[in-house]
């Protein structure tokens, strides 16, 4: 690799307990956006449905820290694992 890395475009953290993870970072002085709830389309042509997950972001001048987590365990568990997005790769909410 040549040159210097001068930016990491938004590191992310996957957490089963999004509220707990955000609280930890807030104790360190981070400030977060309001909770954004995730929706996905299950079948083409249908309206997106709530996935039981969401995210909050700590915004910086040139990037942000994203915390993604489960907001409703029952709803999350009702979706097939292949529909859960990146959370399935780390076993989020199995």
Q: What would the principal axes of the Cα set say about the shape?
A: globular
* DSSP strand content: 25-35%
Strand/helix succession:
EHEEEH
Domain tally: 1
User: Helix share of residues?
Assistant: 10-25%
Number of DSSP E strands: 4
Order the strands across the largest sheet as they lie in space. Answer: 1-4-3-2
Please give the largest β-sheet: 4 strands, mixed
- SSE-based structural type: alpha+beta
Integer average pLDDT: 83
Describe this structure in words.
- The chain is globular, with a radius of gyration of 15 Å.
- Strand 3 (49-59) and strand 4 form a beta hairpin.
- The model has no long low-confidence stretch (mean pLDDT 83).
- The chain has one domain.
- The chain is built from two helices and four strands.
- The chain starts with 11 loop residues before the first strand and ends in a 16-residue tail after the last helix.
- It is α+β, with helices and mostly antiparallel strands and 94 residues long.
- It has helices at residues 18-27, 73-78, and strands at residues 12-15, 36-40, 49-59, 64-70.
- A four-stranded mixed sheet has the order 1-4-3-2.
């Amino acid at each position: 690799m040549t040159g210097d890395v001068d930016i990491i475009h938004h590191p992310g953290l996957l957490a089963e307990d999004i509220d707990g993870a955000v609280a930890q970072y807030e104790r360190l002085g981070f400030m977060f956006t309001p909770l954004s709830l995730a929706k996905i389309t299950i079948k083409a042509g249908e309206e997106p449905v709530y996935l039981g997950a969401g995210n909050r972001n700590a915004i910086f001048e040139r990037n942000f820290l994203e915390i993604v987590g489960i907001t409703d365990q029952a709803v999350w568990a009702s979706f097939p694992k292949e529909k859960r997005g990146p959370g399935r790769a780390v076993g989020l909410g199995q």
